[in-house]
Amino acid sequence: MLRLIVLRFPEISQTPTRIVLEFVVFSTAIASSTSLLFFAFRTIPFFNFHTIYFWPTTNLWLAVCSTLLFIGFYECYYTLTKWRENSLQAEAYKREVLLNQLDVLKNQINPHFLFNSLNSLSSLISEEPRQAEQFVDEMARVYRYLLQTNEKNLTILKNELDFIRSYYHLLTMRYQSGVSLTIDVSTDYHTRRLPPLTLQLLVENAVKHNRVQASKPLKIRIGTTPEGWLEVRNNLQPKTIRVPSNKVGLTNIAAKYRLLGELEPVISDQDGHFTVILPLLAPETV
Which GO terms describe its molecular function (predicted)? Predict the structure, then answer.
């Protein structure tokens, strides 16, 4: 009977209804059982309990108290179990939504990067054939890394730094001295981990939204904070004509950190600089 009630009213929001039905059913069952038991003791010669007295009020209180005690323990256990189950389901759903969002963002990023690279290559082929050949080599190295890591959740910082150097090489072929990159990261941090392609997204974001010219270079610096976080910083020199932005890069990075259950990046725009501070995860244990 208890199983039928729970199956019919399983949700936490249905607890009052479930408790009322449990109380009616079990108090009736206990009262009926004790009444039959007393009757059997008094009437069946085998028991020989002719002097035992049956008090209806006592029997009723016994049924009520026993039922309340049982329902109290059972409902506490059931509610806790149901709450845990709902929490796990909610987390699984949130994770699935984030994964779907991340897949969409990945599909947006790779074509965008390829489009920019091919545009640069097209210009170099006609103007600087030798540089175009070098550009193709660096682009192959960059895309090899993209293909190897884009499906991974984490990669070590050293790999990201090596990759961003190749990516920066592509940028210098396109913008020459209009962009500069400084990397000041101790080797002590090289085995720390972060989501792959994070640095490329931030550098690309800086180039996209700022003027890149030799007379006033875009300066990008990658370093670490005293707390051991990674800091990516660039001077702000917004383009005269604002570039439409759907914030794919920053959204992608934040989504990856949320998916990992880690602290999200800290973004600031002040004192003429745009700064993103990224948590670095502990090295992978063997």
Answer: phosphorelay sensor kinase activity
